[in-house]
Write a structure and sequence with these properties.
Layout (H helix, E strand, L loop, with lengths): L17 E6 L5 E5 L2 E2 L1 H7 L7 H10 L6 E7 L2 E9 L12 H7 L7 H9 L10 H4 L4 H14 L1
Antiparallel strand pairs: 1-2, 3-5, 4-5
Helix pairs in contact: 1-2
């Protein structure tokens, strides 16, 4: 996020681009979220209070509606695994895409959340060399078929 407006230390959260899009049916601006988001950024994108960010994301992760990965990050005392959420799994209102629940239920045995994130971000021969992540919102059935094919090829 942006630096502290009070002139303090810059934020340690990853920088994420929120680009404004057309307004939705309620007049709320839509957004395109990319990159890796913290729980606070996920809550902010969805319009939830930042104070309850963990209370918003944890049920989504537990119900396998939201993909969370852990990224080793340098800290003052070494490294820590920071939980982050890939931005490609959200719609323009900051909500998890409906296909994510189906996709996460189909993850092949032995694949980690990091494995599925890498698969989603890499070009797929079953999708004409397109990245599955780019098609989650527009062609979810094609992504699910490609995952099934990739799982069978492993």
């Amino acid at each position: 996020m942006a630096d502290d407006p009070g002139g303090g230390e810059p934020s340690s959260e990853p920088r994420v681009e929120f680009s404004a899009g057309p307004a939705d049916e309620r007049g709320r601006a839509t957004i395109r979220v990319t990159g890796l988001l913290t729980a606070r950024q996920v809550a902010q994108a969805a319009g939830h209070p930042l104070e309850s960010a963990d209370g918003y994301v944890e049920p989504l992760v537990a119900s396998r509606t939201l993909l969370r990965i852990y990224v080793p990050t340098a800290t003052a005392t070494g490294t820590a695994d920071v939980p982050l959420f890939p931005g490609f799994q959200f719609d323009t209102l900051g909500r998890p895409l409906p296909v994510m629940r189906q996709l996460l239920a189909r993850i092949p045995q032995g694949w980690t959340d990091e494995d599925i994130t890498l698969w989603l971000a890499a070009p797929s021969g079953w999708l004409a060399a397109r990245q599955p992540a780019d098609l989650l919102a527009t062609r979810p059935d094609a992504v699910l078929r490609a995952l099934d094919l990739a799982a069978g090829a492993k």
